[in-house]
């Protein structure tokens, strides 16, 4: 169950605490789920030829916040995983992120891209084959960025985006794409062992020929979930910020620098995983966050509500830092920009936690102040509210509530204290 919380009652506080350079950053926008979403499917964003020289049309689905009137919204382009052999723009590794990011106010484009390796399964792919597969996908990724910039320039900005705030995100193979979109940006870095003469669909240097020439493929920042980079030497001072998330027991894509094996069988080439990318970004002084899922294998956000929630919240923290000027917070938190009263945590006791029939909130040390106690479920819905009994203990009946993680909020004017609580 997700536990990112919508604090509708606190919108004015968030607005007061955020940088006002961009009006859309006011309130809970980009910080929490405040919209429903709508989707436009199978939009053509480019074309090229496959490794077999077959023409292919490149498609994407675009998710947007429903009913939103803003016309200058940040865009997240998202690429799925699949070992560069398969996967889908509607796959389980990306679909919930599309939904939730759009519900936060972003425009999200989930893209399909060219997959396949010429020597798979026989006689077996090698470093050249793998590199060429990555480069085809990266060419498509850059075409997707250029599609939106061309649409903004001459197409009437159909999707209501701000081209100065385009982010590229990816899972597994898509994470490779995100890192290469950001850091493989010079012709001299293009891998010399990729055969751009005899292999189809590889012409056009680092930019490729998948569509919309003449427009920039630069992005504001990238989000890499369990991907890797061909060489961290491609990262230079002043390059794009990055959000990195990776399990330290990943058996599919190396956490550090190591040889990657396709399907655990075919040795491909040496790559630099998130741990190594983090070290290089730190060395180069580039803004970034790095979240290690300790003891976890590949893409832990898939199939784990807790890890998905962590992924969503930490990427949220990273993005609102860049968009709104909120302080960079690379840790798991449930709220951003709230002016917490520092003394409150030591003045409030909550027990038992986890709770079964009842949860007690002891506010007797608040010295008679008028505080309100509220309980929000994982969808941000208010499920309980009452005035705090500052002479003793306030009891919340949790017996009828579904099991899961909730957020307890104690407020007084602009003083706010929040705590995660669990109902069994």
What does this entry look like structurally?
The chain has 2 domains: 268 residues, 3-Layer(aba) Sandwich (Rossmann fold); 80 residues, Immunoglobulin-like (Sandwich), CATH 2.60.40.3080. It contains 6 helices and 18 strands. The chain has an 8-stranded mixed sheet with strand order 1-2-4-3-5-6-8-11, with helices on both faces. The longest helix has 28 residues. The N terminus is likely disordered.
CATH superfamily name of the largest domain? Answer: Alpha/Beta hydrolase fold, catalytic domain
What does the radius of gyration come to? Answer: 23 Å
| Strand content range | 25-35%
Characterize the biggest β-sheet. Answer: 8 strands, mixed
- CATH top level assignment of the largest domain: Alpha Beta
Order of secondary-structure elements: HEEEHEHEHEEEEEHEHEEEEEEE
In the CATH scheme, what's the topology name of the largest domain? Rossmann fold
**Total helical segments:** 6
Residue runs with pLDDT of under 50 for 5 or more positions:
1-23, 335-345
Query: Would you tell me the overall average pLDDT?
Result: 85
* Overall number of structural domains: 2
Dominant shape: elongated
Q: What kind of oligomer do you see? A: single chain
Give the strand tally. Answer: 18
CATH architectural designation of the largest domain:
3-Layer(aba) Sandwich
Blueprint (SSEs and pairs):
Layout: H1 11-17, E1 37-49, E2 55-65, E3 73-79, H2 95-103, E4 107-111, H3 127-154, E5 161-171, H4 173-183, E6 221-225, E7 228-229, E8 242-247, E9 257-262, E10 266-273, H5 274-284, E11 288-293, H6 305-324, E12 349-351, E13 358-362, E14 372-376, E15 382-387, E16 393-397, E17 404-412, E18 415-423
Parallel strand pairs: 3-4, 3-5, 5-6, 6-8, 8-11
Antiparallel strand pairs: 1-2, 2-4, 7-10, 9-10, 12-13, 13-16, 14-15, 14-17, 17-18
Helix pairs in contact: 3-4
């Amino acid at each position: 169950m997700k536990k990112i919380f919508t604090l509708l009652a606190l919108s004015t506080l968030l607005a007061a605490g955020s940088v006002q350079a961009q009006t859309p950053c006011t309130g809970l926008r980009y910080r929490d789920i405040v919209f429903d979403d709508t989707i436009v499917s199978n939009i053509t964003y480019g074309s090229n030829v496959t490794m077999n020289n077959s023409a292919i049309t490149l498609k994407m689905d675009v998710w947007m916040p429903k009913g939103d009137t803003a016309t200058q919204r940040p865009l997240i382009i998202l690429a799925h995983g699949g070992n560069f052999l398969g996967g889908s723009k509607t796959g389980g590794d990306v679909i919930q992120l599309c939904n939730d990011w759009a519900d936060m106010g972003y425009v999200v484009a989930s893209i399909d891209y060219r997959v396949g390796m010429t020597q798979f399964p026989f006689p077996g792919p090698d470093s050249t084959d793998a590199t060429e597969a990555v480069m085809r996908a990266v060419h498509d990724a850059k075409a997707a960025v250029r599609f939106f910039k061309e649409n903004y320039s001459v197409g009437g900005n159909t999707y209501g985006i701000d081209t100065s705030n385009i982010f590229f995100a990816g899972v597994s193979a898509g994470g490779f794409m995100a890192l290469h979109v950001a850091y493989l940006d010079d012709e001299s870095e293009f891998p010399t062992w990729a055969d751009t003469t005899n292999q189809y669909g590889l012409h056009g240097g680092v930019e490729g020929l998948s569509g919309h020439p003449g427009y920039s493929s630069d992005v504001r920042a990238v989000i890499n979930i369990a991907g890797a980079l061909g060489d961290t030497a491609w990262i230079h001072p002043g390059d794009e910020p990055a959000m990195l998330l990776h399990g330290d027991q990943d058996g599919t894509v190396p956490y550090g620098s190591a040889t990657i094996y396709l399907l655990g069988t075919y040795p491909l080439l040496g790559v630099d995983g998130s741990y190594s990318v983090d070290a290089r970004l730190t060395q180069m002084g580039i803004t970034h966050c790095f979240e290690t899922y300790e003891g976890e294998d590949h893409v832990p956000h898939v199939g784990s509500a807790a890890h998905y929630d962590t992924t969503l919240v930490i990427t949220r923290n990273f993005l609102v830092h860049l968009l709104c000027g909120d302080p960079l917070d690379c840790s798991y938190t449930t709220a951003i920009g709230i002016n917490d009263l520092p003394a409150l945590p030591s003045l409030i006791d909550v027990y038992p936690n986890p709770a079964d029939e009842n949860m007690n909130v002891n506010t007797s040390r608040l010295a008679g102040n008028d505080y309100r106690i509220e309980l929000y479920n994982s969808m941000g819905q208010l499920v309980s509210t009452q005035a705090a009994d500052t002479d003793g203990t306030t009891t919340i009946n949790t017996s009828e509530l579904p099991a899961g993680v909730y957020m307890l909020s104690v407020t007084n004017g602009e003083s706010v204290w929040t705590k995660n609580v669990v109902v069994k």
